[in-house]
Amino acid sequence: MAKEFKKGDPYGIHRVLEPKGVLPQPADKVDNDMEIYDNEVKIDIKTLNIDSASFTEIARQAKIQLGIDESTPNTDPKVVEQTKAIIMNIVETTGKHKNPWTGSGGMLVGTVAEVGPNFKGDLKVGDKVATLVSLSLTPLKLEKITDIRPEIDQVDVVGQAILFETGLYAVLPEDIPENLALSALDVAGAPAQAAKICRPGQTVVVMGGGGKSGILICYMAKKMVGVTGKVICVDGFQRSVDRAKSVNVADEYVVADASNAVEVYNKISELTDGKLADVTINVVNIPNTEMGSILATHDDGMVYFFSMATSFTKAALGAEGVGKDVDMLMGNGYTKGHAAVTLEILRESKAIRELFTELYA
Amino acid sequence: MAKEFKKGDPYGIHRVLEPKGVLPQPADKVDNDMEIYDNEVKIDIKTLNIDSASFTEIARQAKIQLGIDESTPNTDPKVVEQTKAIIMNIVETTGKHKNPWTGSGGMLVGTVAEVGPNFKGDLKVGDKVATLVSLSLTPLKLEKITDIRPEIDQVDVVGQAILFETGLYAVLPEDIPENLALSALDVAGAPAQAAKICRPGQTVVVMGGGGKSGILICYMAKKMVGVTGKVICVDGFQRSVDRAKSVNVADEYVVADASNAVEVYNKISELTDGKLADVTINVVNIPNTEMGSILATHDDGMVYFFSMATSFTKAALGAEGVGKDVDMLMGNGYTKGHAAVTLEILRESKAIRELFTELYA
């Protein structure tokens, strides 16, 4: 007789215990029973990659609980044990790993143990996967923590996790080392969105183009705009611009302070004979860079804000204040196939793969 | 001999005195000399419509300066005189009207006095106009304040203003009373953007559809989606939904708490046989409504956030958290022809015109 499955909600609302009627992420407690629903996947966890801000805060709380100095290294054996105890306790009491102080989670790496008959993805038992949804909404059950690497916020465990029908994941490739793949997947949404937006012949400005996601975006934009288009990589630091230049991802490189709107406008205007950008993609991790991106773009063009430092009101009121008719898109970390698109860059560009291996893997 | 004009920057950067190199809005002081540059327009001001939050704060400061109780009405003669003095002082010392406590401005109504030869708009001397750019960036010179109406934040003056080449304005129509026109122009961007986005046959959800901009958006969306499409007006208050219903701007009306994502999702799912919205437009003026709008929209659909209560990070991380591949647009208060598009609604819909006259004019 075939196994019977309970019918699950695509967003995992069926797992929410407290308070009822909210989504799993804002929920205080979720059901971490490891009997899967019809549209769920069960994963044997290898490693939890705790969000960096979250790990730092947990280690700090561990020292407070121990009554020891906060400057004690996170690798101190007593701190490690207390950190483990806090992580185990969070998961035991809430059924997931949402840091009670920062609200953030992280992601995990593991192996598919069971796939519900109505799960719509392409996973099969034995696949090695990284979940790309936050641990703050992922049902977890931990038996024990086997190792902890405070320097890189990683926690090896014996335990299992549930992936909802709408939960994002990436099957980890055989040909790319795990840490290199994870470092790229961390910013997977941005280059995949760039691929959706940029068209042949366009002029694309990438603000913050010398950073990790900036380099991937420049690469993808250059591929999409082709020989008739132009990619302008803008970064606030000479060394970041040099790094982007070393992997040859743009047609022009500019050092400029993204928060100085007039400087950005003048430099982009000069490089484009006053025509300005068709598309500006902003991944600058400092505040007040909205107006520079808006001014760098011509009327009817598009500004894509991908930085978490973006202020909605500054962008909205800024565009109106200068009478600029641009479409302004908010970065959505997810677009279909984003993991595959981004991992492919590491195969296509030997230069970027070497650079990322050196910097992040 | 023809009059000679100095060449001005489109954004008015040539008028910035302190600090140099910024845009007029963030500037502390702008040049309010009433000799126009080649691309500027001079306006004889009739009325300043001070931003409501700004006016309230100025009146409060007036009472503090007078050492009188803050509960004194803003219409008290002493308060009125002190309010006038503060407004005159702001303009005299900074050359514009940027409230030093709130940072906000307002707009003005007046008559075109002179048009520079290189101004690209369609204004001519004698046109009655409303400027739609903030007073916080508009060079002003005031001779005197002739009247003040604290109940509606209006200040009649003798004075002049400068409109930059990129400055937004609307020529006030002969056939619509001034206050009615101004109340609609206040939210002009939203319905014009709705017209750009919505396509025949689409299902459009308007969150906050019972408010002023919500009703205009519903009307425009219904016009664009046509008989094969469907507009669903969602509002948190029965009386707002009833108001929208009374002017017949939607196909379905729903009372729902926009901040309850699961409730919104369930109701929209039910009304669309699980297909969800092609486009969701959010003009809800309370926080935490991002997720409900995202869940109400199907994959590859679009969410248009038009409310200043929108949080960039909540929207960006929210969409990723539930693996939803939607385009998320940020409201730009300006799109070409936005004033004309919005005023035309008041001519097309007798019902909306009567409602707005009753409520706002």
Description of the molecule:
The structure is a homodimer. The first copy, chain A, has eleven helices and 14 strands. In chain A, strands 6-7-3-4-5-8 form a six-stranded antiparallel β-sheet. Chain A has a six-stranded parallel β-sheet with strand order 11-10-9-12-13-14, with helices on both faces. The first copy, chain A, is of the alpha/beta class and about 350 residues long. In chain A, helix 3 (about 180-185) crosses helix 11 (about 350-360). The model of chain A has no long low-confidence stretch (mean pLDDT about 95). Chain A has helices spanning about 50-65, 75-95, 180-185, 190-195, 210-225, 240-245, 260-270, 290-295, 310-320, 340-350, 350-360, and strands at about 15-20, 30, 40-50, 105-115, 130, 140-150, 155-165, 170, 205, 230-235, 250-255, 275-280, 295-305, 325-330. Chains A and B meet through helix 7, helix 9 and strand 14 of A and helix 7, helix 9 and strand 14 of B. Strand 14 (about 325-330) of chain A pairs antiparallel with strand 14 of chain B, so a sheet runs across the interface.
